[in-house]
């Protein structure tokens, strides 16, 4: 069966980084390995049966890019010290939900996913990874809510893009409570 595992979805998003921190905490608590999984897809999906000749170099480059992205996310999240538990960086091929469920296939695993805030339009065009995992996983799933800082970061980013002045009144009460007062 192998050692206990905490499998976590990884991407270059704030909700993913929140999930990575929580997964590392769970792995430490359980004495488990941490498996960080970045799912990637070839453009057009998985058309392995209808793959034209000469596509392999492109797929190899996509795989290398996904690996670099995963290693960068892990380094930016945990730094050089790492998460404090054995860490395995894993690439999953296919849609994120399906890839995560296929890798977290043991009953003793814990699957950790970010449950980012999703608007109506986003829900229509992109299926929810956390919902897919909750519906199909063979192991317990922990859906980690987004950091309260995420909404404020996105609002600040929008204001910056529109060249609007940044005003702390736009931050949520919850965020202001987490920032220590200046001395």
UniProtKB/TrEMBL annotation:
One Pfam family this sequence matches: Usp
Ranges where the UspA domain occurs: 5-145
Protein name: UspA domain-containing protein
InterPro entries: Rossmann-like_a/b/a_fold, UspA
């Amino acid at each position: 069966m192998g050692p206990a595992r905490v499998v976590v979805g990884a991407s270059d998003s704030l909700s993913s980084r929140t999930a990575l921190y929580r997964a590392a905490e769970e792995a430490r608590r359980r004495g488990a390995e941490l498996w960080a999984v970045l799912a990637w897809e070839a453009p057009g999906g998985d058309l392995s049966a209808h793959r034209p000749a000469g596509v392999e170099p492109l797929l190899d480059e996509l795989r290398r890019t996904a690996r670099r992205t995963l290693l960068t996310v892990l380094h930016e999240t945990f730094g050089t010290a790492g998460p404090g538990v054995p860490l395995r960086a894993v690439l999953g091929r296919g849609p994120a939900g399906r890839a995560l469920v296929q890798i977290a296939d043991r009953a003793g695993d814990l699957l950790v996913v970010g449950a980012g805030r999703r608007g109506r339009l986003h829900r229509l065009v992109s299926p929810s990874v956390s919902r897919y995992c909750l519906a199909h996983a063979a192991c317990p799933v922990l859906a980690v809510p987004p950091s309260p800082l995420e909404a404020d970061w996105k609002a600040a980013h929008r204001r910056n893009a529109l060249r609007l002045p940044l005003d702390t009144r736009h931050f949520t009460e919850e965020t202001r409570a987490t920032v220590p007062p200046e001395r």
